[in-house]
Amino acid sequence: GWKMQDVMEEEIKVIRGMVGPQDHVICALSGGVDSTVAATLVHKAIGDRLHCVFVDNGLLRYKEQERVMETFEKDLHLPVTCVDASVQFLSELKGVTDPEKKRKIIGKEFIAIFDSFAHSLQQKYGRKPTYLVQGTLYPDVIESCPPPGSGRTHSHTIKSHHNVGGLPKDMKLKLIEPLKLLFKDEVRELGKILDVPVTFLKRHPFPGPGLAVRIPGDVTQGNALDILRQVDEIFIQAIKDAGIYDEIWQAFAVFLPVKTTGVQGDQRTHSNAVALRAVTSQDGMTADWYYFEHKFLDNVSRKICNSVRGVNRVCLDITSKPPSTIEWE
Ligand code: XMP
């Protein structure tokens, strides 16, 4: 048996053997399951020679920064620096409409912040950080480099799509990837042993470029981000209240950059439309759109239009992947 308690103890031994007493280790936390479990494990092994950074890129969900920082600090006692770089990201993204350009800018800004975080540690401790923790999973490994034969393998190249596009070059960081032999369900099990809250371990995946891929076109248009956060929060909360969150691979709202006519109260309105998307999937490679009950949809739609200023129309995305992708960009 591949017991998670044994895996944890073995990994801790390996990490302690690898990281010298003078070495410092850095980790970028995304707020997702994988980086959180990886960091928690490394923290258990080497304590506060681990230095985590969480970057608020201005493209996060409603109260995301507060929520994940609370988990990191109160539940997991991780040493985390929170960098609020939203102004910087959003000013770089202003007027940019091409999806790939948006991703590139976000990746580049992230590296710049990560780089300066690493340099600040170098100044503080008089030497460069030696290691970088990444929450790479086994499926990421096989996707990049199929293993010869049946056994699990160690060799791989870093997957490009889901990674933030490279690392600070002059840092020459060595990688610690404590989850690279594990599947997602095993990571969740390991997380449980490490006392990561179960609700956190069950969170839906969230893309690195955040809400930028859920606002077609310029992310800084009007109050798109603010509207999207409110709508998304109502939708997700309704899904949780209905007890169906765990059946769904990913659910989210999309801001539609189009204004349509509505009538609210006895007023005509000319406001934005939003779309709701929810899919089931095994791995995100293919996906099916999720069948909600009509009553659920009716309630959510009413609630959104009644409580989010600037929205007078709610649409449901009923496409699977393929032909669509999960995200809108
Ligand atoms: P798509 O939209 O390609 O998404 O069907 C498949 C899965 O990948 C996530 N996704 C991303 N994750 N950076 C990420 O870290 C990205 O640029 C990115 N694009 C899509 C998406 O949320 C879904 O889980």
From TrEMBL:
Protein known as: Uncharacterized protein
Give the source species. Answer: Cichorium intybus
